[in-house]
Amino acid sequence: VNEEISVKHLPSTEPDPHVVRVGWSLDSCSTQLGEEPFSYGYGGTGKKSTNSKFENYGETFAENDVIACLVDFECGEEVEMSFMKNGKWLGVAYRVRKELLGGRALFPHVLVKNCAIEFNFGQREDTYFSVPPGFTFIQHLPVAERVRGTLGPKSKAECEILMMVGLPAAGKTTWAVKHAAANPSKKYNILGTNAIMDKMRVRRHPPSPLAVAPRSASPSPLPQVMGLRRQRNYAGRWDVLIQQATQCLNRLIQIAARKKRNYILDQV
């Protein structure tokens, strides 16, 4: 199976503005590609990641590069995932035993920040680069061989919003996470600063002085490691982290009001 992705950067004033990670995930995985089991990503920093474990792989890629995502289901008891950059094969990135997947389908997945992405699932008359022997574009597979992902609510009337109520540290976030996991077909989006901070991961090494410079009276932050939770790198600057998370939450709530999805509002 093959797909092509072309990258274009969008303007941004942030010191580290552009993130692109492509790969494959199960339908049950979250949007954070490569940060949980059965989610397999390859990022523009030249890293591959699954379950938040980052390793060197391939080459860095950026604007105007074309990445092909390949999955081989016909190599014995394993499924092999590999990538190509501008027509150059970068080697096998992941080998996963089919028994671990349990017959569950892998879906194309992309994680971006301040980037525009153009996909080619086979709908283009001309491919960016030639397709490797033995592979075919997803769109060319017969419909009977495809697996449909979970369908969201068809109308806002069918959407479900749960609002957590209770004192701080009463267990609201724990309940929300467990409830979302117990009802995967609902695909709940948990909205709250705790959920946002859990997703704020470090992606660069060494650290950016603008991002983690501590106040003079505060202890030095820990060295940044790929995939590490950002809270651990903000020693003495908790107010900065909370402010960033709150700004993100306000924006997410604005977006949520326009989308047909199921939400859990987890914010005191």
TrEMBL record:
GO CC annotation terms, alphabetical: nucleus
Subcellular location: Nucleus
GO biological process: alternative mRNA splicing, via spliceosome
Keywords, comma-separated and alphabetical: Nucleus
Chain segments annotated as coiled-coil in the UniProt record: none
Name of the gene: Hnrnpul1
Highest taxon above the source species: Eukaryota
All copies of domain B30.2/SPRY, residue ranges: 1-126
Organism of derivation: Calonectris borealis
Pfam families, alphabetized: AAA_33, SPRY
PROSITE patterns cross-referenced by the UniProt entry: B302_SPRY
The protein's name: HNRL1 protein
MF GO annotations: RNA binding
InterPro entries per UniProt: B30.2/SPRY, B30.2/SPRY_sf, ConA-like_dom_sf, P-loop_NTPase, SPRY_dom, SPRY_hnRNP_U
